[in-house]
Amino acid sequence: MKSLTFTVTNNLQYDQRMIRICGTLADKGYQVTLIGVRNGQGEPLPPRPFRQNRIKCIFGKGFGFYAEYNLRLFFFLLFHKTDLICAIDLDTIIPAYFVSLLRKIPRVYDAHELFCEMKEVVTRPAVYRVWKTIERIFVPRFRFGYTVSEPIAEIFQKEYKVNYQTIRNMPLRSGPAKQVKRKDHLLYQGAVNEGRSFETLIPAMQWVNAPLHIYGDGNFLEQTRGLINKHNLTQKVFLKGKKNPEELKLITAEAKAGITLFENNGLSNYYSLANRFFDYIQAETPQLCVNYPAYQAINLKYGVALMIEDLSPESIAAHLNNLIEDEVLYKKLQLQCSAAAGQLNWEEEEKKLIEIYQQIFA
Questions:
Q1: Is residue 162 located within the same domain as residue 212?
Q2: Number of domains in the chain
Q3: How many degrees, rounded to 5, is the angle at CA 187 between CA 302 and CA 323?
Q4: How far apart (Å, rounded) are the C-alpha atoms in residues 306 and 312?
Q5: Does residue 287 contact residue 308 with C-beta atoms inside 8 Å?
Q6: What is the pLDDT of residues 191-243, one digit of tens each?
Q7: Residue 196 covered by a domain
Q8: pTM value?
Q9: Is the Cα dihedral 333, 262, 317, 224 positive or negative?
């Protein structure tokens, strides 16, 4: 059976999309290796049906990290037995391209987002120019690929003439933990990164009639902690850290409502389709969701979220209070989540992924 290698720049512990993708392909008989980064001593990884390798780097962030990791990754891939390399986002695309070229094996690009349009990239002109140059050079050289939403796939087709499939970030079909009692807090789960509307969500919590639990970390964690202190919300907004996917599933089922917000400060956010959006649906947890194209299209069909356009603190607070206090609306959204969960799940979505790899090796 063919062997597949996937490359990311995280520590593999909490990457739900890659755990699902690699698990599906391993279950189909492929020999799968997922390569990531070892931070510090590195948390031990749970056993999974695919091989996991972490490359230890001296640098932890910035240009030094990307340069070091890409160099180490190049040599790892060069001597690693594999029949295909899949680069996850632009930060691993260069070694994946050159090794696939040297070894004359297929290469695949998996775009988790519009990398150049993330807030931390698009708001820094010099950094943007570097990544955009990499994108323009290498993406057209990846004939096979897929991404997380139709609008992003359309942008790649328009700019680079590549026809990428859409593999959405859907969780396994499990349904909520029926025996778990709903608690009164709101939930944000996922990366605590720039562009996720924490600058307006945190002050909004002054007027929301429920506490907020935030599960995750990222490049905006310290700023979020500062906002919590600034607005005297230490007894109302709680930073809970990262949890593994199985723990998070139970936590999501316990929450009163979920939150999926993004600033409109780059096309990556505007055309996003986040894991958490579908995680809330599977848990039958109604959510407040930003009214951007990919979310809007799904909500028009399934009616699983209360949508919001104005992301000011006052608007967020009013919408959250409406969501948790209007019992008729809440129950309606919950029932519609239950109905949608049977279709919006990984067991349905993985069929497209399997077909992609079958076609590559056909």
A1: no
A2: 2
A3: 55
A4: 16
A5: no
A6: 999 999 999 999 999 999 999 999 999 999 999 999 999 999 999 999 999 99
A7: yes
A8: 0.91
A9: positive
